[in-house]
Amino acid sequence: MKGSHDKKKDTNKNNSLSLSALEKLSKRDIINQALLFHANGNIQKATELYQYFIKQGFSDAIVFSNYGIIMKRIGKIKEAELLMRKAIGIKPDLAQAHLNLGNILNDIGNLKEAELSIRKAIDLKPNLVEAHYNLGNILKDIGNLKEAELSIRKAIDLKPDLAEAHYNLGNILKDIGNLKEAELSIRKAIDLKPDLAEAHYNLGNILKDIGNLKEAELFILKAISIKPSLEKAHFTLGIILENLGKFKAAEIAFIDALKKSRKENRNSIYYNLGIHYRNIGNISKSNDSFKLINEMIPSIKLSKLIALSINYIIQGNLNQASINIHNSKQLINETTLSSFDKIVEAEHMLTWFTFIFNLIQNIKIDDKNIYQNVPHIGDSHSMTFAHKKIKLSAVKKNIQPILILGAKAWHFATKEDNKYKSSFKEQIRNYINSNEIFISFGDIDCRENEGIIHFSIKQKKDFIEVAKTTIIKYIDYMEINLIPIFKKRYYFGFPAPKKTKENLSELAIKRRKLTKLFNQFLKKEVIKRGSYFIDVYELTADEYGNNNDMYMCDNTHLSPDSISILFKNHLYKV
After folding, report:
1. Which of 109, 199, 273, 572 maximizes the CB count within 10 A of its CB?
2. What is the pLDDT of residue 15?
3. Sign (positive/negative) of CA torsion 339, 345, 350, 356?
């Protein structure tokens, strides 16, 4: 929102006022004529009158304030600030001048002083809508979200049809974590102003965050149709399409985002493109995307190195993976983890680093002989036996990892399409010449803070029944898609959980129970379908259901050498 005298379109004329004509006007006539020109949008003539007025040594708060607005409009911020301060000096109770000064100070980044100026405007004129609105935006920028919310709500109370206020209230509510109310506020903004591209974009983001991906896609597309240059909308569209499993459309959206983005904004796009290409099994293109990420920021460099290390292990490029992990270790030792915006991101990177670091010590790539690959598809557990050699049907074969990062059994049990199903279908096509396949999903379903336990508590359902239903639907999906391609299907269970300090907590007890039952249910369903089951839980659990710490690579993954023991002592079939 702009100052009260700067709302109409500039209708400047080329002709200027003559000096003789000005000299005939009184001080009051000059002010009135200047205000009339300004109100009608004739900024050139208004400016001439303001300048003439000031040169004559006349003094008037409104003149200085309005002339300051014009200076701000043409980018002369320092002059604008001085003019506003002169206006306030002449008339300290001129609320509009305090508001305008606050807006100028906000533009130059002096948020604290801007806040004080706008609060003064509100003290002088409590019903000044623009002051409450702008104060809310400043408070949001300095992180005072609760007060920002109150200020924006006050602006809405005073002017309910102010679309921008509803839009900004939605953004504040989103930052607070109140997504449902945020959604309603931004929908109201769109009702009031349907062509507000940013509102469509932000509503799409909110819908994405609450899992309503299909509607999120529609609003992001609408934002792009209104403002095709909105680069972040193309990027967000790519993420939404990727999560929906629309891989070809997602790739196009990411590439469009690259074309429209500035160089400094491309790291996230390259990273997500790298994940996209990995999801479709094109590791070479995935590497190419990751390598384009700028390494100037340590946290981004670490993410890049870890992502490439994963790919190099999938490819069997152990030397390059080792180099990357060595460089990652140096970054971690330099406290790079503390520079991540979110603790969960730092923890994720550390978990992957620890796993890969330990895994590399146990991988030996045999380059002298070429073996037929047996694909091992799954989440991070698919990496556990990367490039180990195993004899199947009297033939020695190489275990080739196929990673679907973050995939849970329930992602395949749900009716909806998603990126995990699409990645699964896309990647198994590359191994149609193999008679066997290894499958490793399920571990994440049994964690305390996500998966079945979290879902059951939230939905007030029995977690055992949820587990049974999940397993049946998961195995149904797998078998329908795998039987036409792979004659023998080997499903891996997952390890018993590690003992922790919180091991006696109610959630930890539930997790131990669920982990045992999930593996038992999984074993039963797999064998009933005529497939093979490798009982990892049986290998790793002690008498209390805790991990026996005898066969682990880290806190979650098996040691690569355990594969021979599993097939010798823990393989089950009909």
Report:
1. 199
2. 46
3. negative
Closest CA to 365 of 402, 391, 400: 400
Q: Which of 34, 43, 51 is nearest to 9 (CA)?
A: 43
Q: Are 360 and 387 in contact (CB under 8 A)?
A: no
The first and second tokens of residue 48, run together, are: 């001439």
Identify which of 500, 493, 488 has the alpha carbon closest to the alpha carbon of residue 544: 500
Structure tokens at 40: 């009608």
What whole-number distance in Å separates Cα of residue 401 and Cα of residue 429?
14
- Compute CA 563 distance to the chain's CA centroid, rounded to the nearest angstrom: 37
- Amino acid identity of residue 108, one-letter, is I
pTM of the model: 0.86
**Partners of 372 in the β-ladder:** 397
Give, rounded to a whole angstrom, the gap between the first and last alpha carbons of the chain: 73
Q: What gap in Å lies between CA 30 and CA 74, rounded to an integer?
A: 23
Indicate the SS3 state at residue 391: strand
* Cα-only R_g, the chain: 32
What's the pLDDT at 2? 42
Q: Is the dihedral of CA 319, 321, 322, 328 positive or negative?
A: positive
Closest CA to 166 of 147, 183, 133, 189: 189
Tally of CA atoms within 13 A in the half-sphere of 308 that contains its CB: 24
Alpha-carbon dihedral 410, 416, 422, 424, rounded to 10 degrees: 30
Mean pLDDT of the chain: 91
Ranges of residues in the chain whose predicted pLDDT is under 70 = 1-25, 366-369, 501-504
Inter-CA distances, 377 with 311, 351, 353, 437, 479, Å: 14, 20, 21, 8, 14
CA distance 312 to 375: 16
- Tell me the three state secondary structure of residue 93: coil
Distance CA 451, CA 439 (A): 19
What the block records as the tokens of 478 is 């797998």
269 residue type, one letter? I
Q: What is the distance, to the nearest Å, from the Cα of residue 195 to the centroid of all Cα atoms in its chain?
A: 25
Query: CA angle at residue 198 from 193 to 200, to 5 degrees?
Result: 70
Going 27 to 30 to 33 to 35, the CA torsion angle's sign is negative
Helix, strand, or coil (residue 368): coil
Q: Determine the number of helices (DSSP H) and then strands (DSSP E) in the chain.
A: 27, 7
